[in-house]
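hi! just following up on the protien thing from before. the input was this:
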Amino acid sequence: MRAYDFTQLGESASNPTYTTPSSDDDLATKAYVDGFASSAVPISVNQVAHGFAVGDIIYYDTSGGSWEKAISTADATRGTYFVTTVPTVDDFTANQSGEVTWTSHGLTPGDVHYTSASSAGDTTTTAPAQYTQRCFLVKDANTVQLQFLYPDGASGGGGGGSIIWSAPDGKAPIYEEEFSSNVWKFLDNGSQELWSVIKVPSTYGGAQIKLYIEAYSENTSNTWKLETTTYLVRNGTDAANSTTNSHASTNSNITNATTAYKSENIELDLTDSSGQINSVSVSAGDTLRIKLTRATGTTDTADIRLRDGAVELKTT
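and the predicted 3d structure came back as:
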């Protein structure tokens, strides 16, 4: 590790001054480094005849050794970077996070864009049913906020809204990659939690609301269960953290079969059959706070994996 003694450079150790760095060994001021805080440093790539334009969504094809336009038809081809500049036909820069300037992009501020499943390099405001990849949020007429690193899920028919899980401090399941996708691992102690919120869409007509998730165990016997508790936050009535009206899901235990890591689709009821929570009707514009936990009292002691992004929200 290189050590610097500012006093030997004839500068004050408490208030050193430097020029803009131009080589790997140069020092930089805090102000210079802070200039990158709101927009992550882009990657610069030379690829002959890349064919990209500013705003294209791309991914790196490890098999072919080249950057390609992304399309949500497989896990491997989902978008991972946003093309920010195209200096030449053989050079481009791209970002994965932060805010980037995209002058006069023509998109609607507030919209979330996902990798398209039908047109390579493009985005859509409707999350694809499979291989959903959030790309960016349109901040204003000239700026987008990149969101490739957000855990994400598909929006369900009639339910509206994507599911993004968050975990309270000290109660988070283990988040890691398995089988080329990200999973949340729930331990056999019942103390871990994931939370999400959904906005009841303006078109909601009072039916039961259900959440569908995918999870699995490495074992070939014994039972396990993931379950939800849903809290109703009535628009214009309840506090944002209200727990007054709640509904516990009524799904049954999963019994492992002879196949290890067997995928299980789990149906979780967020309301009762008539669309109520604690005998209170859910209405368009309300918010549902969803807590997902692993049930106690089952016999499987292995970690239960929730596949991140494999979710669907529906009304029946």
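The radius of gyration is 24 Å.
Residues 30-34 form the longest helix (5 residues).
cheers
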